């Protein structure tokens, strides 16, 4: 539908508006946004800000009142909605696996709608189960009820990926799991996306999740107005206004530390003695800081040398006074 | 591992319930029929009683009774399931109350009165009896179909739509499949009701065990009435048992 290429394609939203009849204000008001090919863009905002509605207009579960949507240059509103949806991956918070179908039937649903042969579907199901770290022989013939919440979410992601769509829409797909499982699923998903390079729109109200997963974040306010649209690092370093700063919360600098790896900061001294606490090269700076505080030290040793507290501050661009401003501008 | 144990546990449980629950009813029915046979055997039957209580008559009445039940239920399935689906659609919101009212009326109007009215229009016979039976049994199937379809988790419908299933595909592959247990339960209720109400067929010359009951009462021959009543009850229990089996066998796996 949008090219044979299953890697991500560009999504363009132009003056997209949804006005439900009988309501004073539009739910989504004149949104214009470009989502570059192969990027994961997170829509983040409070409940009821219209982020889900905006996302659902892209696969036309919600029909826009006015505006234009292009996927890979093609006008979405001119396509048959059912056909369109078969070429867009869709994962939701409640997962929505069909309880009367096996895991294999659930995952094979869209390929089945697209008329793939049984052999091709079955091979694809096994491939996808392996991709989301579920042993195909053990899970293929089970029913959703026999899976844990985290396993069901994985199947939900596998099902969305089934026909290898270039575009995926995900509405809090990890929302219904406990924090430990969620973190685990997020980490796996980051790895998966590095491999797949789909264009993904990911809706969440959890800013931490947005930072962790997003190539870019669109912070939305009431009516789906875009408060800021930028990379996580840029939003954390320079929130556009009070609303965004509020949304980030008090610990913007700590969150920025979490985005940076130890290996990205030049080691300041030659390899140090055995007394210093150790951190690995791909640990985040936040973890390095945590290690320092835990050991009451102002430095820790990395594979490349020694990381000092001062170097860490420099890495996030802290100068005395500036941090104070960021915090006070919240109030 | 957990799921394997779970699956084994389920099938074992199914086996056990089959043993206890599903064998009790046929055994009890056989016992009652034997007791009835033995009891009638001890009686001195006069000529009137003999005319009713002999093999040929009882077999004929049983066949008539079951024919009436099966024909009425088939019609009920044809009428009530599509109506129930129609009533469950949100775009039919306006006609749903009308459909339900008609279904309710069918059950609220006394069957005997309805049969009398139908007799004026159609004369007596099998078809007239069917009108009364169908009117009476539509409601449980209609309502259960509607509720069964409506209670499907909206998240499933949203997921189905989001994956590009058409409305027809969602109805056939998701909503109706998941409504099967509810529809079967309604059908089972309807069947049992029909067996009971089919005794009224005697008043419009449609036959069935109702004739034994009515004749027994009119001619003051208690054994004839009792045989008619007990046999009707046995059919009702037997059909309920079949319905229970069908529910267990046809309900979607994985639920």
UniProtKB/TrEMBL annotation, chain A:
**Source lineage:** Bacteria, Bacillati, Actinomycetota, Actinomycetes, Streptosporangiales
* The EC number(s) this enzyme carries: 7.6.2.9
Keywords, comma-separated and alphabetical? ATP-binding, Nucleotide-binding, Transport
Q: Name one GO molecular function term.
A: ATP hydrolysis activity
Top-level EC class, please?
translocase
SUPFAM superfamilies noted in UniProt:
P-loop containing nucleoside triphosphate hydrolases
| Gene3D superfamilies associated with the record | P-loop containing nucleotide triphosphate hydrolases
Family from the record: Belongs to the ABC transporter superfamily.
Protein name, UniProt field? ABC-type quaternary amine transporter
- The residue ranges of the ABC transporter domain are 11-248
Alphabetized PANTHER family for the sequence: OSMOPROTECTANT IMPORT ATP-BINDING PROTEIN OSMV
Q: Does the keyword ATP-binding apply?
A: yes
Q: Which organism is it from?
A: Nonomuraea deserti
Pfam families referenced in this protein's UniProt entry, alphabetically: ABC_tran
Would I find ATP-binding among this entry's keywords? yes
Against InterPro entries, the record matches this protein to: AAA+_ATPase, ABC_transporter-like_ATP-bd, ABC_transporter-like_CS, P-loop_NTPase
């Amino acid at each position: 539908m949008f090219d044979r290429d299953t890697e991500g394609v560009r999504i363009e939203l132009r003056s997209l508006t949804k006005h439900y009849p009988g309501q004073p204000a539009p739910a989504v008001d004149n949104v214009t946004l470009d989502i570059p090919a192969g990027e994961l863009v997170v829509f983040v905002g409070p409940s009821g800000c219209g982020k889900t509605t905006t996302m659902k207009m892209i696969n036309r579960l919600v029909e826009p009142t006015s505006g234009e949507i292009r996927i890979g240059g093609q006008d979405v509103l001119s396509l048959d909605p059912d056909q369109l949806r078969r070429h867009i991956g869709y994962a939701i918070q409640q997962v929505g696996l069909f309880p009367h179908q096996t895991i294999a039937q659930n995952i094979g649903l869209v390929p089945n709608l697209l008329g793939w042969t049984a052999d091709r579907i079955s091979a694809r199901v096994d491939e996808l189960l392996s991709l989301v770290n579920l042993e195909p022989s053990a899970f293929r013939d089970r029913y959703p009820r026999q899976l844990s919440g985290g396993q069901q979410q994985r199947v939900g992601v596998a099902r969305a990926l089934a026909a290898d769509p270039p575009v995926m829409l995900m509405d809090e797909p990890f929302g219904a799991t406990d924090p430990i499982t969620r973190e685990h699923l997020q980490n796996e998903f980051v790895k998966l996306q590095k491999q797949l390079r789909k264009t993904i729109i990911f809706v969440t109200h959890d800013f931490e999740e947005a930072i962790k997963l997003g190539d870019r974040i669109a912070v939305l306010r009431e009516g789906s107005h875009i408060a800021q649209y930028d990379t996580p690092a840029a939003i954390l370093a320079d929130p556009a206004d009070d609303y965004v700063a509020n949304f980030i919360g008090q610990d913007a600098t700590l969150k920025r530390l979490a985005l940076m790896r130890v290996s990205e900061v030049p080691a300041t001294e030659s390899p140090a003695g055995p007394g210093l606490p150790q951190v690995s090269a791909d640990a985040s700076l936040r973890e390095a800081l945590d290690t320092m505080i835990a050991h009451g030290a102002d430095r820790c040793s990395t594979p490349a040398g020694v990381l000092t507290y001062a170097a860490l501050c420099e890495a996030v661009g802290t100068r005395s006074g500036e941090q104070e401003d960021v915090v006070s501008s919240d109030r | 591992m957990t799921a394997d144990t779970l699956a084994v546990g389920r099938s074992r449980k199914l086996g056990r319930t089959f043993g206890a629950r599903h064998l009790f009813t046929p055994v009890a029915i056989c016992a009652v029929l034997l007791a009835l046979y033995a009891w009638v055997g001890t009686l001195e039957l006069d000529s009137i009683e003999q005319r009713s209580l002999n093999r040929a008559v009882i077999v004929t009445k049983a066949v008539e009774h079951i024919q009436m039940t099966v024909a009425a239920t088939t019609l009920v399935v044809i009428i009530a399931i599509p109506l129930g689906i129609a009533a469950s659609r949100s775009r039919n919101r306006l006609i749903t109350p009308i459909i339900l009212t008609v279904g309710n009326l069918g059950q609220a109007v006394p069957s005997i009165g309805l049969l009398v009215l139908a007799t004026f229009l159609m004369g007596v016979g099998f078809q007239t009896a069917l009108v009364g039976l169908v009117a009476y049994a539509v409601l449980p199937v209609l309502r259960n179909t509607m509720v069964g379809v409506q209670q499907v988790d909206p998240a499933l419908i949203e997921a189905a739509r989001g994956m590009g299933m058409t409305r027809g595909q969602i109805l056939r592959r998701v909503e109706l499949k998941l409504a099967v247990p509810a529809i079967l339960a309604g059908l089972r209720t309807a069947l049992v009701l029909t067996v009971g109400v089919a005794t009224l067929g005697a008043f419009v010359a449609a036959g069935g065990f109702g004739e034994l009951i009515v004749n027994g009462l009119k001619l003051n021959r208690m054994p004839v009435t009792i045989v008619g009543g007990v046999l009707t009850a046995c059919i009702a229990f037997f059909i309920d048992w079949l319905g229970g089996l069908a529910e267990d066998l046809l309900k979607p796996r994985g639920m």
